[in-house]
Automatic annotation (TrEMBL):
<keyword id="KW-0547">Nucleotide-binding</keyword>
<feature type="domain" description="7,8-dihydro-6-hydroxymethylpterin-pyrophosphokinase">
    <location>
        <begin position="5"/>
        <end position="137"/>
    </location>
</feature>
<dbReference type="Pfam" id="PF01288">
    <property type="entry name" value="HPPK"/>
</dbReference>
<keyword id="KW-0418">Kinase</keyword>
<keyword id="KW-0067">ATP-binding</keyword>
<dbReference type="InterPro" id="IPR000550">
    <property type="entry name" value="Hppk"/>
</dbReference>
<comment type="pathway">
    <text>Cofactor biosynthesis; tetrahydrofolate biosynthesis; 2-amino-4-hydroxy-6-hydroxymethyl-7,8-dihydropteridine diphosphate from 7,8-dihydroneopterin triphosphate: step 4/4.</text>
</comment>
<dbReference type="InterPro" id="IPR035907">
    <property type="entry name" value="Hppk_sf"/>
</dbReference>
<keyword id="KW-0808">Transferase</keyword>
<comment type="function">
    <text>Catalyzes the transfer of pyrophosphate from adenosine triphosphate (ATP) to 6-hydroxymethyl-7,8-dihydropterin, an enzymatic step in folate biosynthesis pathway.</text>
</comment>
<dbReference type="GO" id="GO:0003848">
    <property type="term" value="F:2-amino-4-hydroxy-6-hydroxymethyldihydropteridine diphosphokinase activity"/>
</dbReference>
<comment type="similarity">
    <text>Belongs to the HPPK family.</text>
</comment>
<keyword id="KW-0289">Folate biosynthesis</keyword>
<protein>
    <recommendedName>
        <fullName>2-amino-4-hydroxy-6-hydroxymethyldihydropteridine pyrophosphokinase</fullName>
        <ecNumber>2.7.6.3</ecNumber>
    </recommendedName>
</protein>
Amino acid sequence: MPTAYIALGANLASPAGAPAQTFDAAIERLAELGAVSAQSSYLSTAPVGYADQPEFLNAVVALETELGPLALLNRLLAIEKEFGRDRSHGIVNGPRTLDLDLILFGDVVLDTPELQLPHPRMHERAFVLDPIFEIAPELMHPVLRKTVTQLKKELSPVS
């Protein structure tokens, strides 16, 4: 069964409460899609891109699932909606109640209009690499052929 790595991000309250409460509830929902085999701590991070917004809470979950990548993506988008996220409105990289990004799915490499795997910017984002490093430092990026530890060392301190 493949392991999917899902990044969580939020900086607005959702129907479940503050971002930490949203994460707790969202991880319960993710557990319905498979087995949560690892979970990072919740990290507070500065916004990237659009800076005029509250700090984000970020985390990563490792999920062992029988769903395929596109089916999992569709379930992630449905969970986001449950927690008040509307991707059709708002500012790009702006405030949100819940963001669930499929970062890696086993060693799958995929490039479709709906989904790119691995996530095309994961290696540029400390708020993704830091929580993955916490739970899977030796995880290999299937395209760059570098571990999370190596990618983290190469990351510029500004990201």
